[in-house]
Amino acid sequence: LKCSTSGKRLAAELAAGGKNAKQIKAEQRAAAKIQREKDRRKDAIEKGRNPNKKRGRQAQMFDEWDELAKEERLYKKLKQKKITKEKFKELMYGDKPKDSEDVIIDSDVEC
């Protein structure tokens, strides 16, 4: 993730006069867009779908509701202490965290 280096670069550029600050922010937005596209393609492949095929609005809504239902089920199990926080994170995000402190649950956090 280039998030921290880009943030430092942006701060340094703003302190130096900010000539390229807009360009740096545009690069960050472009990198985020590329990452979202990669994630979408990976999810489609995992679900056994063609990632190049355009999905209809209704199919996209069904996917979103399925993801929400999965999150609610896992959260309920977590509250009932049937699974641990680590297991919740693993099932929710698909990878096993190395350090529980490094994993951020809120996906809306930006650099």
Primary descriptors:
4 helices; 111 residues; mainly alpha; single chain
Descriptive account of the structure:
The chain has helices at 3-16, 21-46, 57-79, 85-93. Helix content is 65%, strand content 0%. The chain has four helices and no strands. Helix 1 runs antiparallel to helix 2 (21-46). The chain is an all-alpha fold.
From the spread of the alpha carbons, the general shape counts as flat
Determine the number of helices (DSSP H or I, runs of at least 4 residues). Answer: 4
Low-confidence stretches: 107-111
**Number of beta-strand segments:** 0
Helix content range of the residues, please? Answer: 55-70%
Overall average residue pLDDT: 77
What is the terminal separation in angstroms? 10 Å
The Rg value, from CA coordinates, equals 18 Å
**Sequence of secondary-structure elements:** HHHH
Class computed from helices, strands and strand pairing: mainly alpha
Work out the strand percent.
under 5%
Profile the largest sheet.
none
